[in-house]
Amino acid sequence: MSLRPRGTRAARSPAPTMKAKCTTPSTSSSKNRASGRPRRGWSCSRGSRRPQGVASRRSGGPRAPRARPHSASWPACPAAPLAAAEAPSSPSTTAALQPRRSSRPLLGNFVLSARPSLRLYDLELDPTAREEEEKQSLLVKELQSLAVAQRDHMLRGMPLSLAEKRSLREKSRTPRGKWRGQQGSGGVCSCCGRLRYACVLALHSLGLALLSGLQALTPWRYALKRIGGQFGSSVLSYFLFLKTLLAFNALLQLLLVAFIVGPQVAFPPALPGPAPICTGLELLTGAGCFTHTVMFYGHYSNATLNQPCGSPLDGSQCTPRAGGLPYNMPLAYLYTVGAGFFITCITLVYSMAHSFGESYRVGSTSGIHAITVFCSWDYKVTQKRASRLQQDNIRTRLKELLAEWQLRQSPRSVCGRLRQAAALGLAWLLCLGTALGCAVAIHVFSEFLIQSPEAAGQEAALLVLPLVVGLLNLGAPYLCRVLAALEPHDSPVLEVYVAICRNLILKLAILGTLCYHWLGRRVAVLQDQCWEDFVGQELYRFLVMDFVLMLLDTLFGELVWRIISEKKLKRRRKPEFDIARNVLELIYGQTLTWLGVLFSPLLPAVQIIKLLLVFYVKKTSLLANCQAPRRPWLASHMSTIFLTLLCFPAFLGAAIFLCYAVWQVKPSSTCGPFRTLDSMYEAGRVWVRYLEAAGPRVSWLPWVHRYLVENTFFVFLVSALLLAVIYLNIQVVRGQRRVICLLKEQISNACILLLGSALPPGFPVPSHCGLSSCRFLLWGWRGKTKSS
């Protein structure tokens, strides 16, 4: 170990015998003589030693001497006045100081504060320390020469710890023209640079704060993380699908309120009679005082809105005042509903294509185990609650991956497959018979209600058909669930898909029977009345009854069963969350909403309130009464399946129902915006004839309506384009998956070659390995060679 002053280099010649030289010169350096300042202090030389109290060139400033304890092996010097900076020694000075060595005073006569300090000396234990400091200084200079964005990008890509990156960032933030500006223009440039940098930093911090605030305002963010961590991605997919439905209804309701409900509220028509008194039962039936409101079709006017205009009962047209608001209510009603369905279709197709690309893009779970183990933790998480949620998410994810891997490793025998096929066939026959029986029962009961008009006159009797349909919707899925328990399914994913298909067939059979009941039978019976109001109120009742039965099912099917299982049966086992039945209930309610948009423009608002209540009820029941699936499974494609079922059976069926009502069914002659027309679609033709008579300035609008709206070729072209986009997206994703598989094979082959050339002789080389395995094997072998 060699002692040398800071900022100086060690002498190349070998050090002589350790002898201390102390001197108290009375002369001063040339610089001090010029300034008139005396030179005080003392100096000791031990080889090449600096005076106490004189700052080294690297530290940049003087240091106060510190008291040191007495030591027999460390010579001290008398406390005499010396200069703050020592002049360079000359041969004459050295020769003059040589006789003083023999007359050096004893160690005990010196003051403790006059002893030299070890702080002025470097202990060179590691010769690479100076090289690291030089490299760091060069790196800081290089970072200072870059722009702020390039500097941050380079720091992110460096293989350093967060503390080292933070230190480099702080060092590189010093403005380059700081000292230059202070020496030249009085610090103006430096102050401007610091001010500009402070403003940029403040704006950056404000942006990060706003971004974190927007993420915190995401609805149900913490609740969804908690559900995903405790119950897995399969249960989480149900709540994500509910959130998607909420967005669809909010978008549709925004259009309807802006172009239909809002203008009609601003110009309300005169009521045909006194307003009925509300009794409270209207919240369930939708009749009574709700009939003559903007809730239903019959309240809307059939004229251009310019002033409060009464709706004549004889079916005559309201005559608008000249100079009024040119807002054609029949045309706005028809085209707003059509535009809302078109925008919903585009959004739904885009969401389905995006979800398909996300779920099928990278070949799902192949080789993801090592990434999940070593790369899943987010080191930015600092809160205890967030870290616990992240632990739950990673643990559940590993369970799902391992369960899926075990299913692939255990194939079933031929006899087992035959028994499974026989059980599946029998269960499918029973489920199809159940769906057909439910449809026949609903048809018979609806015919009975039509033939008994005395029961239809009572307001409470209006709830009978929705109650019967709701009970069938509630009981039939339990029968399918019992049959599914008897089937030997290998995969829980396949079990959920089969349950979804069976429940979907049941819902389609019930909805098809109800659509025939509304547009086939009710229109003929209520031809002299406002049948549109009756259909809108019927759909409202079905929606409300579905919500009430869902609450009862949650109460008795989950809460009561958990209490009985814990108290009476002494079991710790809780019921599992039925994903298939709950998802089909959401699709069923959304289909009812789309069917009733034409007859009740505020029905999406009712659906929004229902979805909000369903989320909180289901979340509370799930956390309190349900347990995680006993057989964990990875729901990587569930969102795509849900959106596909929502698009093709549900949305497509609702669109066909509304198109038939617009083009084929004659509107009521006593209510609504289409009361004087033969069909709802004729409102567009009337508007075109009015534009043709208005003048040549608007002649292009009739052309657009004739060739883009009335022409069925355009409708088929748009439908074909949507289907082509879906097909091309599927083909692109499949091509990407093939390319990814080929790249993985090439990486595996390159990994094997790399390991064969890098590993020492006799080390076993695996026959197959992925990118993560190759990386971890090389890291382990590198660490082993370093330690050896």
Average pLDDT for all residues: 75
Largest sheet: 2 strands, antiparallel
Would you tell me the structural class of the helices and strands? mainly alpha
Backbone shape: globular
Secondary-structure element order, as H and E? EEHEHEHHHHHHHHHHHHHHHHHHHHHH
- Count of extended strands: 4
Binned, the helix content reads: 55-70%
Gyration radius, in Å: 42 Å
Please, how many helices? Answer: 24
Strand content: under 5%
Cα end-to-end separation? 27 Å
Strand order of the largest sheet: 1-4
Q: Give the low-pLDDT segments.
A: 1-103, 107-114, 118-122, 176-186, 310-317, 319-325
GO cellular component, one term: Golgi apparatus
Keywords: Membrane, Transmembrane, Transmembrane helix
Domain TMC: 530-636
Membrane topology: Multi-pass membrane protein
Task: Explain what this protein looks like in three dimensions.
- It is a single chain.
- The chain has 788 residues and is an all-alpha fold.
- Among the domains are: 232-269 and 280-305 and 325-362 and 457-679, no CATH class; 717-761 and 769-787.
- Helices cover 62% and strands 2% of the residues.
- The chain has 24 helices and 4 strands.
- It has helices at 30-35, 91-97, 129-144, 148-157, 162-172, 178-184, 188-216, 221-266, 282-285, 329-360, 369-375, 384-409, 414-451, 453-456, 464-485, 492-525, 531-567, 579-595, 603-625, 638-663, 682-694, 700-709, 712-758, 771-787, and strands at residues 3-5, 21-23, 43-45, 121-123.
- A two-stranded antiparallel sheet has the order 1-4. A two-stranded antiparallel ribbon has the order 2-3.
- Helix 10 (329-360) runs antiparallel to helix 20, helix 15 (464-485) packs across helix 17 (531-567) and helix 18 (579-595) runs parallel beside helix 20.
- The longest helix has 47 residues, at 712-758.
- The radius of gyration is 42 Å and the shape is globular.
- Mean pLDDT is 75; it is low at 1-103, 107-114, 118-122, 176-186, 310-317 and 319-325.
